[in-house]
Design a protein that fits this description.
two-stranded antiparallel ribbon; alpha/beta; three-stranded parallel beta sheet
Length: about 130
Amino acid sequence: MNYSNLHKLLDTFDSPNHGLTFCSGSLGANPDNDLIDIINTFSSRIHFAHVRNLKLYDNGSFMETSHLMSDGSLDIPGIVRALYESEFSGYLRPDHGRDIWDENSRPGYGLYDRALGAMYLRGLWDSSVNLK
């Protein structure tokens, strides 16, 4: 999925109810996507946001990491700030969670990592209030 595909998808039906889920993991896997530009362009059509960091590799592969900017390749603070500045009012949640601290869960749905991600995203959102 890329910017052009999103335009085509949203142009098929012009309605405020026809929107998208902004997923930084899915969109961020394509290193050519400018996630902040996508948010700024399609902000009125973003109804839900999954935010996850990825580590991108030179060979085109990637792996999900913690939400921390230092652990991946995506500008997570910039993404959250762009959502805040676009007056995003939909649901924002951490996307997926690794099994950490000896947790045994369904793959991709570690509770501890998602809880840490939720608090990290909330902290970034709250800090955006102070930057405005």
